[in-house]
Amino acid sequence: MEFQxxxxxxxxxxxxVCPVFKRSWRSEKNVQRAELYLTALGVYEAxxxxxxxxxxxxxxxxxxxxxxxxxxxxxxxxxxRQENTLEVTVGRGWFSSPMPGWxxxxxxxxxxxxxxxxxxxxxxxxxxxxxxxxxxxxxxLWGESAVRFSxxxxxxxxxxxxxxxxxxxxxxxxxxxxxxxxxEGEETREQERVMAKRIFRTPAGETVVDFGxxxxxxxxxxxxxxxxxxVKLLHGEVLDKNGNFYNDNYRSAKAELTxxxxxxxQTWHPSLTxxxxxYLKLVxxxxxxxxxxxxxxxxxxxxxxxxxxxxxxxxxxQLFSNIFWGQRGNFLDVPTDxxxxxxxxxxxxxxxxxxxxxxxxxxVERFFRKWLRxxxxxxxxxxxxxxxxxxxxxxxVPSAAWGDAATICPWQIYLTYGDVSVxxxxxxxxxxxxxxxxxxxxxxxxxxxGEHYGDWLGLDAPSGSYKGSSRExxxxxxxxxxxxxxxxxxxxxxGKDVSEYEALYDGIxxxxxxxxxxxxTQTETILAVQFGLAEDLQKTADALAEMIRRDGCQIRTGxxxxxxxxxxxxxxxxxxxxxxxxxxxxxPSWLYPVQKGATTIWEHWDGIMxxxxxxxxxxxxxxxxxxxxxxxxxxxxxxxxxxxxxxxxFARVEFCPQPDERLEWLEASIDTRNGEVCSRWTHTAEGVRxxxxxxxxxxxxxxxxxxxxxxxxxxxxx
Length: 718
Ligand code: BGC
Hints:
binds beta-D-glucopyranose, Glycosyltransferase, single chain, alpha+beta, 4 domains, 10-stranded mixed sheet, 7-stranded mixed sheet, Jelly Rolls
């Protein structure tokens, strides 16, 4: 155990002010190696002799804190001197911010009353072979920090002129040690720096900074000022139809930054909170603001970009950009629904909808594996999976297509990266979810009688409802089949006896066909094909195409149907219709928000309506990645790069590009565990040119042709 240390906290309540813990010492000997192990209840920033320790922002990250708390290890050898001071400032972070924002005030107060403590140990190895550990204990001091307020939703207040004068001995804190785990996820880091594009005055007379791109993170401000002058900013995603600053859609999240200046030139950014924003309203600024004084810093998990999508249409390329930015902005240690309003939770439904696209766009293996372990840890005794992980909504009844993240996510991570251990690790959790349904349903072999989100935000929702018209039991039963199928597949990969689940699966398919002989909505029809439930898949896909045409060649789907609609069309001979939906400009479509200036993916197809009005303020995020799942259709169907179930991790690949004349060319690549695969097609006067690069043996299918090829680059004509 690395921690020869005790949990410590401030010896008295200082309300919203963030405590700083400090320990000074003198090294008499020469240090050969110094390693710091550190974690906190809250989020911490550590400084050794004034220099920041590590690049991890918002450490120790967000996990199912009651069961699993990560600690980090830093090599600080280069920072150690003879006279040393280690200081650790702790903010509320996810641990004691009042999340989610709609909790009643008693619950909020309870969460905010959680302690802010640290546990750390500095291991010093000296050149003479001896060693020493400086662990947190009652010898540490604590004081008030310059961070006068910090919270996930409301923002941060920093007083640069503040200096702690009173230091007192820290108190020991009674908190478990068994929950400690070494860092599992990716570190959250500062990534892109986005310069302010312009500063302008709105019709309402506000001064607004525009970064030209919605990001998640914070702003760095530089200015020359006098002690006590104040910078006060509000964050927003969009302007209203009159061009004024707007952030009512953040709901109760204040998203405010206050910085109290010291004398002279200074540069500052917050370090214990984050925001989702494109615009800043300068509520107070001591001088005429210039764009070069503001830099947006994107903060998210250190996931490596692996996917690229490009084509001949600039608006489609903007959509691709929005999808990537949507992922960056919502992959801050946990896959979240959105980064701005009083929510920012690890919604399971959103994550399962997007996991495939996410896993092609970036290397998210570690990221998801950590989150899936939290899911297993927070899974209820009866196997139920909460709506959000970490489970901050423990009283909610599990919902179909949300809880199914327990099977869909591990299976996809296995397929994309090829490491079977994710299945081994999650198998009990996967089974637990299916068993939960088996016990919760009121009809054997179907899932009836539950409470669900249905086809969330479906365009065919009856007026006043968030749920599309697809039957909830239908969706639940279809996902019951899918999850059971995935347990069977995973079990077989692991060499387990899954005969019980095979029999269950057969029973579900039979019951499903008997109960649901007809499909009433686009989403119902899509699920029947995508999950292999319809008796005649081709006929059902044809019926879907017919239905879409009857609907005026428009999507009518929500969270459940949207990720699969284009896949079903392209897989069953309706590729032209898939492109018609994909390239549609008018509402509802993927490109409608692009026309409206979107730089990330919106929660609603019409977050900003045609008349410029907003969708209801109660739920209108402009950075919600779910509908960005269309990227997986671009990789798999448009560019035709297919991962094979019997060759996970792209050990072999199938290429089956499906071009359309409305795009002159399109290109996709994925840097897989086995090398980079790339597919490009171009319409030329001589026909369609296909360029394919594969680092592994592959099958290329173009029209009726089927070609088995060795690793290499190929040009074919069709
Ligand atoms: C979230 C979603 C989530 C949904 C549950 C919303 O508030 O933002 O994306 O999946 O609730 O239906």
